[in-house]
Each structure stands twice: as structure tokens, then as C-alpha cells.
């Protein structure tokens, strides 16, 4: 309330394709919870050209640029607006969000949710039941005669009698009981046989019934608002009654059809209260921290995601979520249920793509540009298999802004290929490439060290930066990825927007590469992961490039996880290598000299990463940050995991709100913005160049 100030000023408003953007004078009326606009400031004393109710609205900064934002009213009406610069946009967004939150909470306090009561299906079928016996005045028209449209000026609306709302509340409670009984009846069916609990029609019935109940609750709250306003005489002509958030709380009311209650604030674990406390940004050091690899220990965590577990139990929640999504909807801001999460952060998933460091280091050992490009393609295609934890499609934690992850790998020099003859691809599918894991007692000269660091550099849009280097081999890779997820019906698609850069400093070569799209398929049954799309790898200096296609399975026939590609010399347009196979099984490489070599990805040994113990990690390092969520998921306590996850997300929102109010920019720790990308603050190519310059000056 300290920041509830009425503000006004000019903004550009998008009208339509023909008219485009137009300057309009906007006024934020905090007392009434309204955003109004006029043609210009001089016409401010006249009737507004447009008005939006802010209660229940969503204020969203646009990902298009730093000036645009949208105001999405609960009624469905939207204003797309543009400020003169990023600072002005932040000022408007923060004030609108404060006003919206204030009025939304006020409505919530005045209109508490319905209390659920259970009724059996048998009792509801009786003609003598309360739900069937109604007075003549209790018809649908008298119940639902208020729409979400603008009321005509001067038209007298009859005041609804209080007993009508009591009757509606009674009927809503009965309907909720019937709906829960329906869910229980379906879920009690056997999992096999003629009619099962996984029947597609029954699953759809469960989803649509939940969506219907939420819609009816919205309508009931409109009636409550109208009745309260009319009693106070405060419903002026022309007022728009806003849609509210569904009053059936998904987390509290539907867990396999049973009511669930979260513990009160005083009963929350100390770890949750700690997560919810707002960390003062000024107290957190943003200075880069040098991680000593000697403090890192071999990772012993092995969280495979092969168990459906809670996914099976919470199918009704998945269906309810799906019923509220639209085709093509951006899922970036959609909070997904906790039980579909992996037990690791997205930042750690990027590290797991580096689980074959021997193949990574071997790239620079290639004796020619052609061989180095082929080795990079071989390494690139082997990275995705280990990046996925098991066959079940689950989602890693969304990193919070400022979150980091550090690890390293130690690789015996004897296990790294030095020439084409010792490359792993020479092994047949029946042979297993054995990599030594016993590094204790070896001197520094006996192994290479690959260091990795990742940071969440942006929240909206969600962008991660990661960097890995092997100082001894003078090679490093820098990448930034913006994950854009969309709902595609019975699957979810994730586009990995961004670019990576591999630098081989010994050869003065740079390789740019992109990442494929990922899809979670069959999300109603047994979800599984599929990669799709075309990626390119290019080296401008040598003129070699690679084109790789990840093929999605066609509707009829075809193989799963198929990948094809070719490496060619751009100057002569000569193909020097072709690859085909499955990215999670066997890959076949055919070279220009006629040789064919195979790689069985399921038999490639994995080098475990080395991670500092939790007690030595900083508060924003992934494993320490998410430790309570991970522990709860391991214990199978979904409610507790949800509580911890919600606390972290709430803390992030509070800190973001504080930065907006103080107009403080977020400072990253390890990555710097350069153009459209993010670059590690101390990349190897800078330190090597500086060392060479210093040596030259000394000489």
C-alpha cells in the first residue's frame, strides 16, 4: 500500500493490424482498481475511451523487446502497451502489479472459497434430494442472468435475494461432491480389462468435469460480486464484472479426488520458512567465485527417472491442467505440478551433457580440420543420451535467477584418443569402451581436468548460460540457451533458442552449433522424450560444416529417435562423413574412404562428475538451493516437495518485486551480456591471449 500511487502518462497502445500503434493517455486509478485511457491528456475530464478492471488481471512484460508489456484482464480483454524505454516500462509494470495484487486480494477476502461437501451419487439420484427440489423462482435464468459483458447504462438490474445465493451455494456443493464421486468411481476401476481407469474417454470426462466445475465457480463469484455491489449501491452503470481465478484450488481440493490441506504457516518446516524469507540482494555477493576442483568429490547421486510413481497417482491433476491449456500456448509462465519434476535443476542437466569428457578432449587431438570436425560431431551426438535420466519424460527444476551449478571431471590422459586409430568409434557395438574411474593417487600430470559452470542469467525470458574448459588442452565451450515450451495437444514441445561456441585455441578454430528441440510425448499415458529438428555445426576458418537432422517419429510406422547427418567441406561441397542411427542407441559413421564404424551409446562408460559437498556450496548453488525439494521427491512426499518449491518461487517473486520498486538492475555473477548472447566473464580465449601478450612484452 506504500506504493499505491495514482500515475498517469502517455503510452503507445496497439489497436489492430490496420491502425497499428497509437499514443494514448493512460491513468492508473488505484482506489478503484482501474486502468483507463483517453485520446490525449486534454480529454481526461471526458469519459474514458477504455477501462480495464485490474482485479484478477495479469501484467506481463513482453519478451519481444524491453519496452512492451501487456495487461490481461480477468474478463479476457487485453491491452498491449509500449513505453518509451525499459525504465518507464518497469515503472508502469511494478505499479500495475501492486494495484492488481491489492484488489485481487481484497476480493478474495470478501469472497472466501466454497466449502466442499461430499454427496454420494446414489443420494443425488433421488427425486427428493435437495438438489432436485427447487422453488419455481429457482431457474437457470434467475441464477445466471449476469454475464461478463458491460451492463447497459441506466438499465435497472433486479437485486438478487440472499436466499438465492444460498441455494446456489448448496447446489454447487452438491455438484462438487458428485464430481469427486465421479473421479473416485473412475479411479477405482481396474487397470486392465474391458473398462479400465485409463480409458481415454473416461480420462477426458475427468478433465472436462474439473474444467466445468471451475467455470461454474467463476460464475458463482460473479453473482456474489454483483449482489455485494448492489447491496452497497456501488455498482455504477457501465461497470465490467471481472472473471476471477478458479475458486477450486487444484492443490488443495484434488489429489486423486480427495481433499488435501496444507499445514498452517506456523506448522511449516523451518526449511520452508527459510526459503520464503526474502534475501536482501545487497547482502549477496555477486563477485565470481573461483571453485577449487580439489574440494570437489566424485558424485554419488544416481537419480534415475524410470518410475512413474506419482505420475500415475496424479493423473487427474494432469488432465485438469491439460483442460486449461490451449494449442500453441506458451508454458514458460505456467506452474507445472511438482510430481512431474526430475530431481535436478536444468543447469545440472546441461552439465550431464558433458558426461563423456574423454570424447570432448579428444576433439582437439584430431590431426586435420576434417578429423576435428568429425570428432566434434561424434561427441555432440553422444551427449544427449546421458543428458536424459531414464526413459520417462520428466521436467528438471526451472532455475531461479542467479542460480549457479559447478562441477568438474578428471580424465586420465591414457583414456583420451590421440589419433584416429584410437578413437572410440573404431569399436564394434559389442565392445565396451572402458574408462578408468580410479584416479586416486595419480599425479596432476596424469589426468586432464574439465571445469563446468552454469548460471541462470535471466528469468523472463528464461535464459541459462554455461561454460566448460580444459586448460591443459586450451579448449573451451560457451553457450546460452533460452528454453521456450509450448503445449501441442498430447505432447509438449521445448525449443532451445541460442547458440554454442567451441574454441580450439591450439588450432585457432571456432565451431558454432545449435541445439535440437525436445518433445514430451504421450503425456496422458507413459510420457517419453523425443528430439526433433535440424541443427548445424560450422567452422568458418576451415570451411567444414555439419548438418544433423533429429527425426520425429511419423504417425504411422517409422523408427523412434532416428538421427541422420553429414559432414562436408563447403568449398568443394564434398561429403566426408555420413551418420545414421538412433541418438540413444547405436550410431553408424561412414567415411569417404568407405570405412564404417559404430558407436553403441548404451555401452559407453560414463565419467562421474565431481561436485562440492552441500555444506561447502553457496546458497544459490543448484543442489543446495533445491535440496529440500529433492529430498521430499526421493521420499515420495509430493505435498512437502510442493511446499518447498512454492517457497522458492515466492522468494524469487518477492525479490523481483523489490528490484522493480527500487529500480535496481539484476547483476549476473559469471556471464556478461554481449549482443544477443551471454559470454563467460573469463573465457579461456581471453586468458590465453593475455598470457601470450604478456610473454611477448617480456621478450
From TrEMBL:
Coiled coil (UniProt feature): 638-665
Pfam families noted in UniProt: Oxysterol_BP, PH
Alphabetized InterPro entries for the sequence: OSBP_sf (IPR037239), Oxysterol-bd (IPR000648), Oxysterol-bd_CS (IPR018494), PH-like_dom_sf (IPR011993), PH_domain (IPR001849)
Domain PH: 4-101
GO CC, one annotated term: membrane
Gene Ontology terms, MF aspect: sterol binding
PROSITE patterns assigned: OSBP, PH_DOMAIN
Top-level taxon of the source organism: Eukaryota
Region (Disordered): 104-136
GO biological process: lipid transport
Record keywords: Acetylation, Coiled coil, Endosome, Golgi apparatus, Lipid transport, Lipid-binding, Membrane, Transport
Record's subcellular location: Endomembrane system; Endosome; Golgi apparatus
Major subcellular site: membrane
Comp. bias intervals (Polar residues): 117-136
Record-stated family: Belongs to the OSBP family.
Subunit structure comment from the entry: Heterodimer with OSBPL9.
Role according to the record: Plays a role in regulating ADIPOQ and FABP4 levels in differentiating adipocytes and is also involved in regulation of adipocyte triglyceride storage. Weakly binds 25-hydroxycholesterol. Interacts with OSBPL9 to function as lipid transfer proteins.
Stated name of the protein: Oxysterol-binding protein
Lineage: Eukaryota, Metazoa, Chordata, Craniata, Vertebrata
Gene that this sequence comes from: Osbpl11
Amino acid at each position: 500500500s506504500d506504493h499505491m500511487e495514482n500515475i498517469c502518462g502517455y503510452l503507445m497502445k496497439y489497436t489492430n493490424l490496420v491502425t497499428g500503434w497509437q499514443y494514448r493517455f493512460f491513468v492508473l486509478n488505484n482506489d478503484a482498481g482501474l486502468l483507463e485511457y483517453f485520446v490525449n491528456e486534454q480529454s481526461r475530464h471526458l469519459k474514458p475511451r477504455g477501462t480495464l478492471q485490474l482485479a484478477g488481471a495479469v501484467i506481463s512484460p513482453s519478451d519481444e523487446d524491453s519496452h512492451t508489456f501487456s495487461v490481461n484482464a480477468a474478463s479476457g480483454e487485453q491491452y498491449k502497451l509500449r513505453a518509451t524505454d525499459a525504465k518507464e516500462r518497469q515503472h508502469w509494470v511494478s505499479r500495475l502489479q501492486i494495484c492488481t495484487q491489492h484488489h485481487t486480494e481484497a476480493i478474495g477476502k470478501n469472497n472466501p472459497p466454497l466449502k466442499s461437501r461430499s454427496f454420494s451419487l446414489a443420494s443425488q439420484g433421488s427425486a427428493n434430494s435437495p438438489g432436485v427440489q427447487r422453488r419455481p423462482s429457482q431457474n437457470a435464468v434467475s441464477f445466471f442472468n449476469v454475464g461478463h459483458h458491460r451492463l447497459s447504462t441506466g438499465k435497472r438490474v433486479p437485486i438478487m435475494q440472499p436466499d438465492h445465493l444460498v441455494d446456489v451455494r448448496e447446489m454447487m456443493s452438491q455438484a462438487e461432491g458428485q464430481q469427486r464421486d465421479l473421479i473416485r468411481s473412475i479411479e477405482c476401476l481396474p487397470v486392465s480389462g474391458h473398462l479400465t481407469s485409463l480409458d481415454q474417454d473416461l480420462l477426458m470426462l475427468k478433465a472436462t468435469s474439473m474444467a466445468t466445475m471451475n467455470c461454474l465457480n467463476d460464475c458463482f463469484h460473479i453473482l456474489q460480486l454483483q449482489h455485494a455491489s448492489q447491496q452497497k449501491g456501488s455498482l455504477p452503470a457501465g461497470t465490467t464484472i471481472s472473471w476471477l481465478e478458479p475458486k477450486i484450488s487444484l492443490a488443495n481440493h484434488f489429489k486423486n479426488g480427495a481433499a488435501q490441506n496444507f499445514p498452517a504457516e506456523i506448522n511449516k518446516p523451518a526449511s520452508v520458512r527459510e526459503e520464503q524469507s526474502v534475501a536482501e540482494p545487497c547482502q549477496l555477493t555477486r563477485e565470481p567465485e573461483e571453485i577449487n576442483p580439489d574440494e570437489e568429490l566424485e558424485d554419488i547421486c544416481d537419480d534415475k527417472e524410470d518410475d512413474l510413481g506419482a505420475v500415475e497417482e496424479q493423473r487427474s491433476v494432469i488432465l485438469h491442467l491439460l483442460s486449461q491449456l490451449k494449442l500453441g500456448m506458451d508454458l514458460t509462465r505456467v506452474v507445472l505440478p511438482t510430481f512431474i519434476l526430475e530431481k535436478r535443476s536444468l543447469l545440472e542437466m546441461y552439465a550431464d551433457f558433458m558426461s563423456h569428457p574423454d570424447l570432448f578432449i579428444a576433439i582437439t587431438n584430431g590431426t586435420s580440420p576434417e578429423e576435428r570436425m568429425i570428432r566434434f560431431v561424434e561427441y555432440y551426438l553422444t551427449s544427449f543420451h546421458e543428458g536424459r535420466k531414464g526413459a520417462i519424460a520428466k521436467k528438471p527444476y526451472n532455475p531461479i535467477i542467479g542460480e549457479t551449478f559447478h562441477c568438474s571431471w578428471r580424465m586420465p590422459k591414457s583414456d583420451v584418443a590421440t589419433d584416429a586409430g584410437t578413437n572410440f568409434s573404431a569399436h564394434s557395438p559389442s565392445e565396451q569402451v572402458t574408462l578408468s574411474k580410479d584416479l586416486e593417487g595419480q599425479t596432476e600430470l596424469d589426468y586432464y581436468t574439465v571445469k563446468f559452470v552454469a548460471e541462470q542469467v535471466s528469468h523472463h525470458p528464461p535464459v541459462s548460460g554455461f561454460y566448460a574448459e580444459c586448460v591443459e588442452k586450451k579448449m573451451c565451450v560457451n553457450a546460452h540457451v533460452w528454453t521456450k515450451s509450448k503445449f501441442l495437444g498430447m505432447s509438449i514441445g521445448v525449443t532451445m533458442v541460442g547458440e554454442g561456441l567451441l574454441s580450439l585455441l591450439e588450432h585457432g578454430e571456432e565451431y558454432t552449433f545449435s541445439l535440437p528441440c525436445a518433445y514430451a510425448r504421450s503425456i496422458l499415458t507413459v510420457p517419453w522424450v523425443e528430439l526433433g529438428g535440424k541443427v548445424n555445426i560450422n567452422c568458418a576458418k576451415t570451411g567444414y560444416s555439419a548438418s544433423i537432422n533429429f527425426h520425429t517419429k511419423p504417425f504411422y510406422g517409422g523408427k523412434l529417435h532416428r538421427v541422420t547427418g553429414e559432414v562436408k567441406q563447403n568449398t568443394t561441397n564434398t561429403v566426408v562423413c555420413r551418420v545414421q542411427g538412433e541418438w540413444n542407441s547405436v550410431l553408424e559413421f561412414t567415411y569417404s574412404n568407405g570405412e564404417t564404424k559404430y558407436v553403441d551409446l548404451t555401452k559407453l562408460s560414463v565419467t562421474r562428475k565431481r561436485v562440492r559437498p552441500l555444506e561447502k556450496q553457496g546458497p544459490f548453488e543448484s543442489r543446495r538451493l533445491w535440496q529440500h525439494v529433492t529430498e521430499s521427491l526421493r521420499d515420495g512426499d509430493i505435498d512437502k516437495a510442493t511446499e518447498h518449491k512454492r517457497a522458492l518461487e515466492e522468494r524469487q517473486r518477492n525479490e523481483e518485486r523489490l528490484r522493480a520498486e527500487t529500480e535496481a538492475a539484476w547483476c549476473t555473477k559469471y556471464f556478461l551480456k554481449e549482443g544477443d548472447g551471454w559470454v563467460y566473464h573469463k573465457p579461456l580465449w581471453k586468458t590465453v591471449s593475455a598470457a601470450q601478450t604478456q610473454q611477448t612484452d617480456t621478450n
